[in-house]
Write a structure and sequence with these properties.
Layout lengths: L2 E5 L3 E4 L4 H14 L2 E4 L10 H14 L7 E7 L6 H10 L4 E4 L19 H10 L3 E3 L13 H16 L5 E3 L5 H8 L5 E5 L1 H5 L2 H4 L17 H12 L5 E3 L8 H4 L14 H11 L6 H12 L8 E5 L11 E2 L5 E2 L11 E4 L1
Parallel strand pairs: 2-3, 3-4, 4-5, 5-6, 6-7, 7-8, 8-9
Antiparallel strand pairs: 1-10, 10-13, 11-12
Helix pairs in contact: 3-4
Bound molecules: (4S)-2,6-dioxohexahydropyrimidine-4-carboxylic acid and zinc ion.
């Protein structure tokens, strides 16, 4: 098999930012993906339907002519989110999901949730409306080791949340651990997970190999090898609960390569070469389409995209690894793990 044709993929977790950065990075995702769930962690965040409409307008203006790309919009859950926004956004079809950041967990999460009792009314409205809650699954307790924050979150926050809202539709975003994968596998139909390309390709040793590698730093941070292997198994298993969310998260190079660098890996230009490599190495190329193009739409109750893309077994053009110019912000460095790349996108 030197060429594979698959239904056009979707990205179920994407950061496209705003302003110059938005204009530079959005066309890269719009060329490949039919749809993407747009993360709301702007400064200030996308807090209500007015913010959401304005942001959607700026995104649509950045979509290249002729592209059929559709942004799927989310709200940022705060302790003052109005349940009416959930009902109205569902009724109008403008709202696809709501993002939960525990306050302080990651980039631009300060407006997130501290006290879960304060968002009960919103969660009830979401459960009623069938709107998925997208969870950044890490505790913020500074006493918990950074490598344990996901597993502890499952125990302390996620399991009780599911007990209180048994019909709430939940996506555990960017799982990074064996515990995350097995929790999601073992829970009801209403709980799914996204997995990023980087967590299938790097482990925590890679972040420190030969020196500190800021472009391998994201949150949740990559864990030890056994976790990477568990994620590869989950992603390539064909289990419909697991689907692609790239978490492509661009930061200007100066904000990554500095004394206190930002979390976030920019993988949009290399998503498919990365994934084809992983699925081929796992002997599961026949399940790539389920992960990138079928399982996500099924969970979100949307039809799969109608057209197809073609991947070819040829080393990708070096140009895809070139840093992207983002105007006054400088450049964004593209994710490049130390693996041979044998697949490229022939037609998107
Ligand atoms: O690495 C990350 N970067 N993790 C997140 O949760 C947020 C993201 C960002 O916005 O840069
Ligand atoms: Zn993210």
């Amino acid at each position: 098999m030197d060429r594979i044709e698959i239904i056009r993929p979707d990205d179920w977790h994407l950061h496209v930012r705003d302003g110059e950065m938005l204009k530079a990075v959005l066309p890269i995702s719009a060329r490949l993906f039919g749809r993407a769930i747009i993360m709301p962690n702007l400064v200030p965040p996308v807090r209500d339907l007015d913010d959401l409409r304005a942001y959607r307008g700026r995104i649509e203006a950045a979509v290249p002519k002729g592209s059929g790309f559709r942004p799927l919009m989310t709200l940022y859950l705060t302790e003052t989110t109005d349940p009416a926004d959930i009902r109205n956004g569902t009724a109008s079809g403008e709202l696809t999901a709501v993002k939960l950041y525990p306050a302080g967990a990651t980039t631009n999460s300060d407006a997130g949730v501290k006290d879960f009792k304060r968002v009960h009314k919103v969660l009830e409205a979401m459960q009623e409306a069938g709107i998925p809650l997208l969870v950044h699954g890490e505790v913020v307790d500074p006493d918990v080791d950074i490598f344990d924050r996901e597993a502890v979150f499952i125990e302390r926050v996620l399991a009780p949340l599911i007990r209180d809202f048994p019909a709430l539709r939940i996506v555990m975003e960017h799982i990074t651990t064996e515990e995350g994968a097995s929790f999601v596998s073992g829970t009801g139909e209403n709980v799914a997970a996204t997995i990023t390309p980087q967590h299938l390709l790097i482990n925590r040793n890679d972040i420190f190999r030969g020196g500190i590698r800021p472009h391998f730093y994201c949150l949740p941070i990559a864990k030890r090898e056994s976790h990477r292997l568990a994620l590869r198994k989950a992603a390539t298993s064909g289990n419909a609960k697991f689907f692609l969310g790239t978490d492509s998260a661009p930061h200007p190079v100066g904000n990554k390569e500095c004394a206190c660098g930002c979390a976030g890996i920019f993988n949009a230009p290399v998503t498919m070469p990365c994934l084809a490599q992983v699925f081929e190495d796992e002997g599961a190329l026949d399940r790539l389409e389920a992960f990138t193009s079928l399982n996500g739409p099924a969970f979100y109750r949307l039809p799969p995209n109608e057209d197809r893309i073609v991947l070819a077994r040829t080393a990708p053009d070096e140009a895809i690894f070139r840093a992207i110019d983002v105007g006054a912000d400088g450049q964004v460095v593209v994710f490049r793990p130390d693996v041979p790349f044998r697949w490229s996108v022939e037609k998107a």
